[in-house]
Specification:
Shape: elongated
Number of domains: 2
Catalytic activity: epoxyqueuosine(34) in tRNA + AH2 = queuosine(34) in tRNA + A + H2O
Strand content: 5-15%
Strand order of the largest sheet: 1-2-7-4
Cofactor: cob(II)alamin; [4Fe-4S] cluster
Distance between the termini: 67 Å
Number of strands: 9
Radius of gyration: 23 Å
Number of helices: 18
Helix content: 40-55%
Subunit structure: Monomer.
Main location: cytoplasm
Order of helices and strands: HEHHHHEEHEHEEEHHHEHEHHHHHHH
Keywords: 4Fe-4S, Cobalamin, Cobalt, Cytoplasm, Iron, Iron-sulfur, Metal-binding, Oxidoreductase, Queuosine biosynthesis, tRNA processing
Length: 376
Amino acid sequence: MSLEQALRRRAAELGFDLCAITSADAPAEAGKRLAQWLAAGAQGDMEWMAETAERRAAPRALWPQARSVIMLGIDYGAPGDPLAILSRPDRGAISLYARRRDYHEVIKGRLKQLAGFLVAQTGGGEVKVFVDTAPVMEKPLAQVAGLGWQGKHTNLVSRRFGSWLLLGAIFTDLSLTPDAPEEDHCGSCRACLDACPTKAFPAPYRLDARRCVAYLTIEHKGQIPREFREAVGNRIFGCDDCLSVCPWNKFAQATRDAKLALREDLSALPLVDLAALDDAGFRALFAGTPVKRLGHARFRRNVAIAIGNSKRPALAFAVEPLLGDSSPLARGAAVWALARLLPMGDFSMLAGKALPKEDDGSVREEWAKETHPTKK
């Protein structure tokens, strides 16, 4: 058995569904595309994308000693239709990857074990492991390694697992035999592009993060721009639309990984209950999941927007307390939501009570735009 074969076998034993190798040479055109994307400002609030661009552009720019990159993938598919929750406007939609244990913790531990195995097999060599938090372009590397290809939605697509893959990488100074790259199998399909609720794809294979619901509900630090709020719907953390409609998902399967099993208690949570969570309750409910990293203020912002999109006036009572929230994000989103749920007379009465106490300019602007429609 070759070293590469032994590595793949050990990876499978550790719970990885895919394992492939590429050289540490920069994927062709990846750095150029990154520079163009940053030049267009498509990264939005994600300043770290620009700050780490030089190291991100090529594996050897991050670690000059790198000679090979081992790319790993774990299936996180689930039974049923991930988009079914969108037809239940009184419930919060959480992206499929986030309704389980934080994948960073699961994958990093396994990467360290696999890296240790590699060093033991060779009697030396250096290794570095990465899971999403370092300046590594995992998806282009995964494509040249042969795990899948970057679809028109810019995410990785696998012929075996569709769009449901979590990625990790091991850099090593050892020279390993590379695998063949995967070809693009999207063809003329544009299902993912057409499914995007905010039209975040200016062209196939190009994403404007500033319009992406996943970015707006997770990474964006400020108030969600008004032009996108209705399109957010009841999505309170992430968006699975472009992933879910990919035809290659017909080959996907539910993950068998017990450590990444779905938490059923995070499926279809009532928005009323989520709006009532204080910071301690938020942390307790989402402990160990990616949602916790969002923080309570942005979470309440998202929940308020979702309630405003519910078109259910009976839910206004759950949003009204947020007018007194300590965060301007929550207060501003609550103003927007209540303007869509309450009769104008009731809304004006609330404005009369809340505005004199409001000292944040952004929240006062929300009130102004709702009480004076011409300012919207």
